[in-house]
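Methods: holo model generation. Sequences were used as deposited, without trimming of termini or removal of tags, and paired with ligand SMILES retrieved from the corresponding compound records. Each pair was processed once, and we did not select among multiple samples. The sequence and pyridoxal-5'-phosphate SMILES for this entry were:
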Amino acid sequence: MHVKPQILTLQAYKPGKPSEIVKREYGLDKVVKLASNENPFGCSSKVFEAIKTVADQFAIYPDGASEALSKKVAAFLNVTPEELLFGSGADEVIQIITRGLLKSENNIVCATPTFPQYAHHAVVEGAEVRSVPLVEGVHNLTKMLEQIDDQTKIVWICNPNNPTGTYVNEVELENFIRAVPESTYVVVDEAYVEYATATDFPNTIKLLQKYKNVIILRTFSKAYGLASFRIGYGIGNAELMAELNIVRLPFNTSMIAQVVAMVALDDQQFIEHCVIENTKGLEQYIKFCKEQDIPYFPSQTNFIFMEVENSGEVFEKLQSKGYIIRAFPQGIRITIGSKEENEELIYHLKEVLNHKIIQN
Ligand SMILES: *Cc1c(COP(=O)(O)O)cnc(C)c1O
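and the model returned the structure below.
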């Protein structure tokens, strides 16, 4: 054993098979990947122009503090740049928060299933993970509160939740935060916030002034379609963010990532278009689920979770037809694609599910 013993209870992150490999393995001409909640419409076209303008800066270290980007995002969100902390994806901000806050005697409270990185990093730090099962795909905030004790350093609320797509509304979230002790940090991961259309979806930024122990996570990987560049950020109390900033690697976000994030933020028309198309796409899947009597969770995101049996088998069969989704023990998660991609996937999913019923 080389690493800290608790690390060997974890597994290295295993991504789904890349499209090229699936193509070759199954002898397919076309593969549609609806597995990682990436944007089927790509990113703002302004990004392509911006990239051409930075070619003379490749030999120079980036601005580690992401100053220009901080100013821009701060103005967009109506917060101060001091309240922001950028990372190589929200993933890295999760790591920075965990590294900065957790001692081995601490514990974290999170949901299950939820985004796995909260628990993953806590285990690396030797802290205890208290997972509270979702109820009907939704965070059980009452039970989560009960799990908090004086060693609880972080409570993670993934809102909307990945992989179920469900959300905690404004009243529920504020009531929860109010009940959490000040010495416990509440991290609200809003990776999919752009897609949320519910009128009672929380305006979490508003809560930051009142509750100094709240941190919000956002990313450019999902709705902004910039996953390959690795850029995301945390929003929180300026003093807290300044302390967490000490943990950050000197040059954790690249110059190119900072530049593309800035131009993408300027193109809110692109985001609006994607959200409208996404809502239509969700409706395609909901119609299908209702027709086929497949239980699903209402989603505020660009994916939908369906409770199907033998999810592993369903995944395999779809993959062999060139459609990559994600399987979980409780069901399958499908990223909303373009209209045509959704139609095709629904066609094949119907076949796979009906075929199975006949076999049984
Ligand atoms: C995708 C995702 C992230 C991480 O995104 P980055 O690409 O690291 O910015 C964080 N949280 C949730 C819930 C996600 O789904």
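The CA atoms of residues 191 and 218 lie 5 Å apart.
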